[in-house]
Amino acid sequence: MQKIPASWMGGLAISFAAILWGLDGVVLTPGLRPLDTGFVVMMLHFIPFVIMNIFLYKEYGVARSFTANQWMNLFLIALFGGAAGTLFIVKALFLLEFKPLTVVVLLQKLQPVFAISLAAILLKERINRSFIIWASLAIFAGYTLTFGLALPDFHTNGNTLKASGYAILAAAAFGSSTVFSKRAVGAMSFRTATFFRYGLTSGIMLVYVAVNNSFANLTQVTTLQWGIFLIIAFTTGSGAIFLYYMGLIRVKAMLATMCELFFPISAVIFDYLINGAVLTTVQWISAIIMVGAIIKLTISNKSSES
């Protein structure tokens, strides 16, 4: 029997992880809406980390060989990809009560713009003219996806404007995390990267929740919500992250970016099937242009590195 190429396995792992994230945003996380955002993000990381300790406790021994640079990369992944990115996207979804879900999810996919820009700043990677053109088009399409062809109305679209801002901040945070993740995962197993990402993010969010006095939410969590936390922990949370990192070490960054587009695509499909949500014609055109521009800028940036 012919062996399946590692790149195919990696691409399938990332794609399936992205589909799970799309399902999470439509089906699972909305059930946590009554709780404090920071508390939700903390529990989404703390519960999986406690479970991981049962099976992956030996990873603490691996930490003895970490360099200062590896610790810094892991901390930055936890700070941007775990704490800040998740906090921003959940805030956006909670603010709009998950109704214009698709817009927020699609805006979040602007993250390659920030990832490539940050790589140019931190890693001194070259950015060509093509990237500037396609990145500008992606940002413009993101605007028309949110507000159409009109100027934003700060009175009637106040929450939409705030949620869009949070979604873009999430894109910047996740994009930053992508740069640090590629460097960190290249030097350690996907199990190790996932374990310490969740551990460090849990620590960061514990401090955040303590400062904001949100621990009172513990008494407000219903049985159903505890069930949602556990389902997310095993599937769309740590389960999807395991798949993502397993795929990331097997594929190039460009292919990983393409596969991650299954997140907004699946979110659009699930949002329609479950909530009956439909994009307008302008939003569909904007979404297609934005996704196309993201693919083109990723390809053009990869070509400039060759």
What would you note in describing this structure?
The structure is a single chain. By secondary structure, this protein is an all-alpha fold. It has one domain (6-305). The chain has 13 helices and no strands. The longest helix has 28 residues, at 68-95. The model has no long low-confidence stretch (mean pLDDT 77).
Major pleated sheet: none
Secondary structure: number of strands: 0
Strand content: under 5%
Gyration radius, rounded: 19 Å
How many domains? The number is: 1
Mean pLDDT: 77
What structural class results from the helix and strand content?
mainly alpha
- Contiguous helical run count: 13
General shape: globular
Helix content: over 70%
Are there runs of 5+ residues with pLDDT below 50, and where?
none
Helix and strand run: HHHHHHHHHHHHH
Termini, distance in Å?
Answer: 34 Å
Topology:
Layout: H1 6-28, H2 37-56, H3 59-62, H4 68-95, H5 101-108, H6 111-122, H7 129-147, H8 158-185, H9 190-211, H10 223-248, H11 253-260, H12 262-275, H13 281-305
Helix pairs in contact: 1-10, 1-11, 1-12, 2-4, 2-9, 2-10, 4-8, 4-9, 5-8, 5-12, 6-8, 7-13, 9-10, 11-13
